[in-house]
Predict the 3D structure of the following.
Amino acid sequence: MAGSIRNGSTDGDEPIAHARRCPDTDGWVLHELEAHLTEVARLASEFSTPYAAAEWGAIAGLWHDLGKYQPVFQSYLRAAVGMTETDTPPGRVKHAIAGAIHANQTHGAYGRLLAYVIAGHHAGLPDWRPDEAAGSPLSQELMKEPRTLEQAMRGAPPEDILQPGITLLRPPISHAGELHLWLRMLFSALVDADYLDTERFMNESRGALRGAYADIATLRSTFWQYMADRFPEADTKLNVLRSKILQHCQAQAACRPGLFTLTVPTGGGKTLASLGFALDHAAVHSLKRVIYVIPFTSIIEQTADVFRTVFSAFDPDPVIEHHSNLDPEAETVSGRLAAENWDAPVVITTNVQFLESLYAAKTSRCRKLHNIAQSVVILDEAQLLPPEHLKPILDVLRQLLANYRVSVVLSTATQPELLKSRTDPFGRTTLEGLGQATELAPDPARLYEDLRRVKVRLPETPTDRSDWDDIADEMKSQRQVLCIVNRRDDAAVLWRKLPDGTIHLSARMCGAHRASTISRIRELLERGEPVRVVSTQLVEAGVDLDFPVVLRAMTGLDSIAQAAGRCNREGRLPSGGSVIVFNPPQPSPSGLLLKAEQAAGVVLGSSTGDPLAPSNFARYFDLLYGDVNTHDKGEVMHILSVDAGKGAIQFRTAAQRFRLIEDAEQQPVLTRWKEGGSLIKRLQAEGPHRDLMRLLQRYSVTLHDYQLGRLLDSQDVAICDGIAIQMSDSLYHPQLGLLPDPPSLDPASLIIWKGGS
């Protein structure tokens, strides 16, 4: 890198990529353009090697800033940073399109593919033709900007930049429908290379913080030493089983990279077993990182805490979290940097972040993609992958398995039907499955029997509906009990019918409030004190709570099994825990939740014996997936493949269409719960900035647009710098959280503090 930087005066006319003030002199430190292009080419080539795109990465790097050779751009750059004084500095000058045009002109069909990557390295991958997404399509940009390349040639780019003598090889994909991901990976390599080289020049201290992590082999050794120290011998039946599962996973690590399943009942130690397998597997096969993908932000921090306990001796921290609720107070600078490109050895993220990034077009979302190659990806609670998006999800997983040296682990207590393909009555494939997988657990059916810790009681008839008073009476009769309902409104209604001290949990509470409340619940349980909790399903997936009695409103069979996992979790009750399933006063909301409830009703109505027997789940998922109207809600597969063979790909439109969570009609509101109030005052005084907004994320609650509209009309919420903030103190209830519809609640409940947290 030293060759890419030189001290120079403002009088120099050598083409530069960037410039900064020298801290020790009045002069300037110049980042020569040729050196920048050469280094970015080297890095992009290196990053692209795992998926046979090294040559493509090199050319993309050499040509990505070709437009900076324009004399007008050099004038603009020098004026913009203050190297030259002018009364009329030139406006922004396009530069990315020049290299794209050069690629298109010199490399035919391959050049068009390079053009997407080069043209989008700042603004994001473009569509080929006009469509739903904003921004100029690439086909128009290539036609209307020829002068940009002509002007760049006036800057006399070196011949070895323009004609590097590199031969492009055919992309190693099986069909045109795989081209979009391969180009995203190439795009990721270029974007990250460009960012890194620029960062090393502009902010040397920041660049120096990157990397320097312990390698996979070292983390592997540390993991097994930790397990030996913490669990020197299995002292209970449950720990014997957990040890057996862990050892069996370890024995499978030498299997060739590919698709794996880990089917272990809740409480069987899936988290540590999957991490142990992943580290061993990565070490054996020279894979670079472990990516742990979790459905909900509510359990990310819990998983990260487990992993950080294992690797507590390392600095920098080898575990990074990448999700919206990240607490900057517990975040390191190196961790923030690693979240930009996932270059740490252990990454913990969400389904939304992981899967949407694989279909993204923005540079910030795509930058990390090349670091997914050569990794072990663990999909925790795989049954929660949304059925209406399964086609693009399974397709991209197949591509990762086939083309990018990725091993995928589907980890769950209730394996969904993701391996086999589905057909319609005419024999046409409607959903292509993932195919064969290697099971990591020893005899899942036997494990289920060995780990049975609860008895499940179902409603006497499908039409036998309980009212909330009945459920409240059942909870009052229990000393420690958890009730899980399907709707936030249901949770509030039931909570109001219960004694003081009852704890409420729902997404109407901000993330910081929920985390605090879950910690309090654990403390009460550990001390053996009375505790009654009413919650939505946010506690089901992976939240470590252990109640003797759990009530669950009728829902999908997988959710009932997850609820059962919060009951007698450690197997301490000699007679087992009690799970009571009831039909609430109203069925589940229409849509997927109702379909899941109906599928569960069919399976449970026709089965005998244990409702949660593994054999029931194959039928349940078969019914659920068969009842879904579409497995590609956004028609993403069609958008990306219809003209891909002609090099015409709609990147932006596909990214816009692929949304696991529909947020178009929802908006976050910043709340004044605890520290949220002082942070909102800072926002009003300072305006929004990155660090402050990251702090505020843990104090936000998402509302529907119509709810927000009412609160704006009542002036309980106001807009500050485009951000909705709570104005009325009474709007946030100390137990229920944000109240979007106060009239629907008992007014007394808005002002009376109930005990608990």
The two ends are 55 Å apart (CA to CA). Residues 179-202 form the longest helix (24 residues). Residues 1-11, 325-334, 743-757 have pLDDT under 50 and may be disordered.
